[in-house]
Amino acid sequence: MIAPTDPGPDPTDPGPVPTRTGPDPADPGPDSANPQRDLAAARIAPADPQPNAPAVPGRDPAEPLPAAAIPELDPATGARLLEAARRAALRAYCPYSRFPVGAAALTAEGEIFDGCNVENASYGLTICAERAAIFRAVAATASGRPRLRAMLVYTPTPTPTAPCGACRQVIREFGPDCLVVSCCEGPAVMRRSLPQLLPDAFGPEDLEL
Ligand code: THU
After folding, report:
1. Best mutation site among 90, 117, 184 for ligand 1, i.e. most ligand atoms within 8 A of its Cβ?
2. Degrees to nearest 5, angle at CA 168 with 127 and 204
3. pLDDT at 60
4. Ligand 1 — pocket residues by CB below 6 A?
5. Which CATH superfamily includes the segment(s) 35-43+62-199?
6. pLDDT score for 51
7. What pLDDT is stored for residue 83 in this prediction?
8. Whose C-alpha lies nearest to ligand 1, atom 9?
9. Residue in 17, 22, 59, 19 with CA at minimum distance from that of residue 38
10. Ligand 1 nearest-atom number relative to CA 101
């Protein structure tokens, strides 16, 4: 007989969850030293849920985007992707995480589809920016099966943000060799191939598609 073991804390219990029902009176307000918080604050103003898109703080709009940091793409395409992802981040609906993300997907045909994260009061229904962009590409593609060449993820943070596991799997569906580039307000750029992000992936081929 196997001795009963103590199951320990419930791994599904997320623990105490902070409630965010409006502006925190202790919140000092927009913090120009933290562009991520600035942008997020603009997205959660309760009296104005669709504010005019603020400029992304921290970067001089006249300053060229670091498209040269994506040598796999021609500079004009890199710049278009970056701009699309940055603009999409301004439209992120992220009142719970206050973590805006913008994504831009480049198809083999050279089309660009952007997306932003869209959260929900039922937290688990949140959709990431990358998947929002891919689903737009699917809806706009006659075959329903776009081929993804590159995905650019932008966050107004000091360091780049990698796509979550769920998004890696969805990128895999349409771009098994997709280039995934993460850009931010800092100088670092993260460039990975999809197989680097998701080795030995399950995919349509496994179902003979
Ligand atoms: N998020 C994305 O949109 N993409 C990622 O790759 C990482 C996470 C979003 C989901 C959620 O709205 C917020 O970031 C915090 O997890």
Report:
1. 117
2. 105
3. 55
4. 94, 97, 99, 101, 117, 119, 126, 128-130, 161, 163-164, 167
5. Cytidine Deaminase, domain 2 (3.40.140.10)
6. 40
7. 93
8. 128
9. 59
10. 3
